[in-house]
Amino acid sequence: MDWWNDADALLERSWECMVRAAEDGTAHRFAALATIGAEGPEARTVALRAADRKARTLSFTADILSRKIPQLRADPRAELLFWFPDETLQVRARGRALIREGPEAEHAWRRVPNASRLNFGGHPATGRAISGPDAFSKFPERDRFAAIDLLVDAVDMVALRADGHRRALWRADSGRVAWLAP
Ligand SMILES: Cc1cc2nc3c(=O)[nH]c(=O)nc-3n(C[C@H](O)[C@H](O)[C@H](O)COP(=O)(O)O)c2cc1C
Fold first, then answer.
1. What's the predicted TM-score (pTM) here?
2. Residue 62: CB within 6 Å of ligand 1?
């Protein structure tokens, strides 16, 4: 498929990149997650854990005490931003976050390697002031683990080439991909 001149193919290519990024464990799975905070927008890196084309979900995990969780509870609208250098392709996936915790997050928790479980727990929690660079302790706390699924309702794609760029937008409400000026 010529994804460069076919808007539907560009959308499929974007999903392929996200699925591959989640599965291959390389740096391409690191995305910027933008949320809406009380004082304005906030963005931070998260690792994409799964991408499901059919369900149109993008999944990541987080410590319940990190700021993104109360922000997403207050306003579930969020965006994940990816840059795929091999395709020179930027993908912005917008949607609504569904937060799973407790028993609902058990399946995802089982997939977290022991060493990584330290990222969910510890004292004080991430972002809190400490008296020096190492004045904290990390220990896994199952109750602090959340698995988040972003239900994607729009994908904005920008692909770069020296001879002319491409931009297209897919929206769930229309189910269509439309070209935009790049
Ligand atoms: C490479 C990298 C990967 C990260 N992956 C995650 C992640 O998957 N989930 C997460 O909550 N934080 C992750 N972080 C930490 C966040 O970027 C952020 O510092 C932390 O979650 C606190 O953010 P918040 O208080 O704004 O929610 C990662 C940071 C880096 C540098």
1. 0.97
2. yes
